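Quarterly update from the structural biology core.
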Amino acid sequence: MDFNYSAEDEAFRSEFCRWLERNREFAVPALGPLADEDEVSWEATLRWQRKLSEGGWLGITWPREYGGRGGTFLQETICDQELERAGTGVPFTGPGMWLLGPTLIHWGTVAQKQRHLRKLLAGDELWCQGYSEPNAGSDLAALQTRAVEHDGYFVVNGSKIWTSLAHHAHWMFLLARTDSDAPKHKGISYLLVDMKTPGITISPLIQITGARHFNQVFLDDVRVPVENIVGQRNQGWQVALTTLAFERSSGQERIMTNRVAELAQLALRLTRNGHPLGDNTQVRQTIGRFATEAAAIRYTGFRQLTRQLKGLPPGPEGSAIKLSASELGLRMASFALEMLGPFAQVEQGDPFAADRGLWTRRMLEARGPMIYSGANEIQRNILGERVLGLPKG
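Predicted structure, tokenized:
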């Protein structure tokens, strides 16, 4: 693989770096999707998204007619690299840009693309994802939310859970069963739902960190116009798999590399018996192993990028990255707490908290990535059965 960039790509990088320097005052710190809104105000997050959108730096690979730049995946990667280098990133305002946008580009009608994609990039439409249900999480095809067609509408009844940022969302993309007699992977449709529609109730779910990020959403006789279906009726599982493929290709390979560097810096700041923990052989070897794993995840991300450059859909690399990165994140957070010792008990916001309590918070959050986007057990099944050809257990 050639890791060098063309002169055209480097010119693109320079152009973006100049823009980024001029607009640095609007940038917000790079925070993950589970970040507490107290860390960065919601208004500042939206303002940064709108500034990036106005500059033409979102939707790099999207078609120009729908608000994108019509650029390449390498250019998108360059933008991500420079945002990361500047300590910021594309702000997380819901899964609209990340998941729905690419799905609509692939499956949506012209009217749906024209209606939603530009507003989605500009932050004028915020989206949430209606997949998981109280009894259908990793086994998503067991969902029981139903949509019955009547007089030009689907009438939707059911509930969705772990719905990220539903309390901010204007729209939801959801899966509902439109044929109760079909096998469970059949008879499902993919619908776009206006969150202002009567019959929608949002109930917050408070996380272990105290932050409100997730919600349960109840749908009681919610009327959705039939033209809001994406793809074919009863064929929504195919559309959903497209969304899931993008969900598992989420940039974790870059996050892990940065997190190893942060862990190494923590080891240099903490002392035992007057010496930095980073001088300890066991500590150095452990962080070295983390760095090796992070590098392997990063290069797996390059394999995924190569598929995209060839015009191929996301492949099994997404499952491998999701599985490896989430488990590495848990082990790094656990090791950070070992290094912190008694100070690991000091909560975020306390003046005595090391790194502002960052690693304690990460430990509390670390189980989440192992569950969402398809639990790690599901990723092992995907890799074992579909990639390695192993028999079902």
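Strands lie at 127-130, 146-150, 153-160, 171-177, 188-194, 200-206, 212-225, 229-230, 271-272, 275-276.
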